[in-house]
Amino acid sequence: xxxxxxDAFPFDKSRLEANLISKFFYAPAFEIYGxxxxxxxxxxxxxxxxxxxxxxxxKHFIIEEMMLELDTTIMTPCADSKTGEVLRADHLVGxxxxxxxxxxxxxxxxxxxxxxxxxxxxxxxxxTKTKAVKLEDSVVAEYERILAQLDNYSGPELGExxxxxxxxxxxxxxxxxxxxxxxxxxxxxxxxxGKNPGYxxxxxxxxxxxxxxxxxxxxNRKLPFASAQIGRSFRNEISPRAGLLRVREFxxxxxxxxxxxxxxxxxxxxxxxxxxxxxxxxxxxxxxATTVKRMSIGDAVANGTxxxxxxxxxxxxxxxxxxKIGINPKRLRFRQHMGNEMAHYATDCWDAxxxxxxxxxxxxxxxxxAAYDLSVxxxxxxxxxxxxxxxxxxxxxxxxxxxxxxxxxGKTFGKDLRTIQTIVEELDDxxxxxxxxxxxQGAATIVSPTGQEFKLTPDLLTFERKxxxxxxxxxxxxxxxxxxxxxRILYCLLEHTFWSRESDAERVVFSLPxxxxxxxxxxxxxSTKKFDHxxxxxxxxxxxxxxxxxxDDSSQSIGRRxxxxxxxxxxYGVTIDFASLQKGTMTLRERDTCDQLIGPIxxxxxxxxxxxxxxxxxxxxxxxxxxxxxxxxxx
Amino acid sequence: xxxxxxDAFPFDKSRLEANLISKFFYAPAFEIYGxxxxxxxxxxxxxxxxxxxxxxxxKHFIIEEMMLELDTTIMTPCADSKTGEVLRADHLVGxxxxxxxxxxxxxxxxxxxxxxxxxxxxxxxxxTKTKAVKLEDSVVAEYERILAQLDNYSGPELGExxxxxxxxxxxxxxxxxxxxxxxxxxxxxxxxxGKNPGYxxxxxxxxxxxxxxxxxxxxNRKLPFASAQIGRSFRNEISPRAGLLRVREFxxxxxxxxxxxxxxxxxxxxxxxxxxxxxxxxxxxxxxATTVKRMSIGDAVANGTxxxxxxxxxxxxxxxxxxKIGINPKRLRFRQHMGNEMAHYATDCWDAxxxxxxxxxxxxxxxxxAAYDLSVxxxxxxxxxxxxxxxxxxxxxxxxxxxxxxxxxGKTFGKDLRTIQTIVEELDDxxxxxxxxxxxQGAATIVSPTGQEFKLTPDLLTFERKxxxxxxxxxxxxxxxxxxxxxRILYCLLEHTFWSRESDAERVVFSLPxxxxxxxxxxxxxSTKKFDHxxxxxxxxxxxxxxxxxxDDSSQSIGRRxxxxxxxxxxYGVTIDFASLQKGTMTLRERDTCDQLIGPIxxxxxxxxxxxxxxxxxxxxxxxxxxxxxxxxxx
Lengths: 635, 635
Hints:
Two copies of one chain form a homodimer.
Chain A: H1 2-8, H2 13-22, E1 26-28, E2 40-42, H3 44-63, E3 68-69, E4 75-77, H4 89-107, H5 118-124, H6 137-148, H7 155-164, E5 187-189, E6 197-200, H8 205-210, H9 212-218, E7 225-234, E8 249-259, H10 269-272, E9 276-280, H11 282-286, E10 293-296, H12 297-302, H13 309-324, E11 332-336, E12 348-356, E13 359-368, H14 372-381, E14 387-404, H15 406-413, H16 417-425, H17 429-440, E15 444-447, E16 453-456, E17 461-475, E18 478-485, H18 486-497, E19 498-501, E20 504-510, E21 521-525, H19 532-544, E22 549-551, H20 558-566, E23 572-576, H21 578-583, E24 585-590, E25 596-600, H22 601-613, H23 618-624
Parallel strand pairs in A: 3-7, 9-11, 21-22, 21-23
Antiparallel strand pairs in A: 1-2, 4-6, 5-6, 7-8, 8-18, 9-10, 11-12, 12-13, 13-18, 14-17, 15-16, 19-20, 23-24, 24-25
């Protein structure tokens, strides 16, 4: 009923924005100081709406699924590699490729490029070692093409280049981690010296991974388990715009669901398998289309559209959550990341996008990030971050183990022995077999990640056949990560629920569901003094029932007071007047329809409490209390 | 009963700390990266305990008193004066005093001090203007004494010096605001240019004041009202220590109660007037003692120990809150700030101090900060931050208004006319009368804040008698500010509730009240598979009753499982065994006494739900269910 009225009214964004500011849902922060882009303060209705959304999120995810809630720090020390050194990805790639080109020129007997200006020197500071190694002509051309457009590469693209061209930290030869968009982080420094750089977390995820071992012990070393965290994160956006959709400080709610990579089924998938979603898969997008397919999540997992049950389970749960708090399901879709936008390590990734006046906006990301995060933290710190499975039947198998003749190798290769050892230790079984085959033919060449080649002969490397018996399987858990931008959801929700009355465009309404509405019940006494004791009594009884109410005892007309609270999204109102004094009755008004019912005060309280708790809806309330058509009908 | 056992056991801090870390109440953040002082991550029990404390705080303060909840930004742009410039208080004081000494030397015909080293130059950069003004010898001595020990002054002391010696910003002559401990703030910069310095808020208070006008409108322009905010704040402590008691990132809960300075009564003071507090007033401390006086807050306000009803009301409410969540009232006192430690603008200030193994620690501050904060923000921005009272009877009075003869003044004083105008405009009535009297005698001298003197004669300044009629009283509200350090409270609570069983010191217990305990009920099935359906059923029924439970279905003995959860502070446990299958019964165990009761499953659920909701206590539970003395008695 209310829905019909709402859809009939054209969306008026300037009216929405004026109302959000004037009712202090939120407002630009530091406005009296001239304001600053991308920072917003939430006032009483906005803060309450956000708190209610968080509360519902906590119930829907944390309590329902017995997740481990964390509260980790926002301030983050820079600790970006084994040495704690931070490299700028563009400088690193530029420096290394230039050094290789210089080495190529040297090998070709040409003069190296002159190191001309200061900016260039700066870029090259990570690449002092030039080795005379000749490159293929095609490789030279490729390097030059990359250098010419280095500024155009995004972080993930630079990471891709590091992997493709085996670019490591030239000072340590250590592999570099995936580039972080460090320039989007707020930098600071920790402690009085200024020597410990820090930054503000751009998401809460790191706090989960860093504490994996503690949590794994907390759950008695059983998988799967999930951690959850709700908290502030920061991104130093270059030019924030679009209100709450792109801000510099925001509240996120993130889940990390840790799971055995060999078993991504979900115990409660059965409960959600019939939930229908609008899916925009990667194939449709790659064909240039945006047509969603409506599909049950059960079918989507069964036919391979969604990678696995756990990922599918969370997509369905995200859908249910968003719809429960009032997002219009017709304006909600799940868009799969295409190959070129997904991180290289991710198995599958979907965004819940909500349509609003700015288009379709990503509000929740849900990715199967495989073992990436735990592996990276483990590699950086040397701390094992693995799970164990006690095998009922031990696995027994045979394996060739390479044995290096270190004495001879040391004599031949000097300090490169170490590099050779590392290369050989990191070979997987297939490569061990390949190497063994080559050596059987007389000789084999191995290559370090930096391109150094070593020729080995059978006297330097032998193989020993060993029987391995494993009774415990050790593995790095995979992680499914649903990540919610609460401010974006809140803004879309305000857009989806906003409309004006046909009778008067100035009379705006937010049809927020009671579960998230900032105030559930408005108490409106006819005049200020005479009804004070009834107001107090009603207010107390509602509070005891867990219903958040507020009193508007201003001198304005009852109609005007209701109108003001329609614009705050308050779903129910009760009027206390002379009939309350004389007959002990109270009227109950519904925000969207303006229907009014009447009944004994305690009965009205009972009905409104059930309405707020969601155990009955308005249609059922209509059967519980008679309609009121008295003189104070106000719409 | 449990209380007796607890007190009998000596407090063992190393055991407490070991348990806090091993159970992951909290742990040093970034530990796998080597950790960083003053940053802690809260794990599942710590995060839940904190969430429950916050939840209770929200009920006790925000909901109970209908406060306006805000959620404002952590990132704060630097906007520290009219020009947005930030001055370092020690540099400012040093620079100005040195410039004055140099001017004195110049006036005395001596050579100015040589500006010797770079460090000195840096300190002096704010004081380039040297004016040849001779100083009294005693003043010279005083300035030199101050300069000699400049590094020893605290922020408030530097502020005091600025006021005493009328030190203003030398570039603008603008008055400087009270020094902020800026070196304790985490600095950053906002946006891509690096030109907009920012810092992380050291408390949440600024967000309240900045939004005063919006909130005043939100409450329909009525006083008193209060705002509240719970959120993260940051202080870049130089050497954080003492665990959660001094950290660099922490959660605060702050209230700003805005009140008419002429009426600091509180409508609900009557409700708390009999609450007895241990008060350590300033007179006792100034006499060198620490003896608390036990006094009802009604008496304390009546006899002037506590400045006013509103401040007293909050002291009592703070006491009630802390005791409700489990702080030992015998280890809680309220200490008044002494004259020399209280900010100059504050009317009265008390700290709730909680005794713990580090001594008495300030955990809540409660100050009447008068009109200071709103005045400062209003002065800095030019935005009026006032409230209005419609007077029933307009106030009519007569007043002498000074009239400057600008034409003649301009000729005599040139561009100093402006300064003279400002001085005269800012005179209060008493000073206007004084000036009028002096001029009647022939001449008068007025002094600018920087010490410039102007001699006025009756032709330059006359007075006009005016009748003023005020029907609206405009005033700057005063603010009472209760400010809670939640991490400190949480830590003290863990200390106060920690003990070990007499039978075995390894069996540690946190006797956390059910209202804040991380988990309320532990469900312990005898063996893993057979009882699954009963476990699910009990768990679901508890959740429906709003009771947070967890299941421990590990293979360890029931006694060991209970012991593990005593160390997590779980107040109740229910055991599901063969009797549950055969007779439909379940046992109920209380954490502190290890008492066990038995009853039909639904009855046990009903009793434990009431226990958790606080509607009955354990003594009453003993009358509702029979004791269980079966073979599985576990203590």
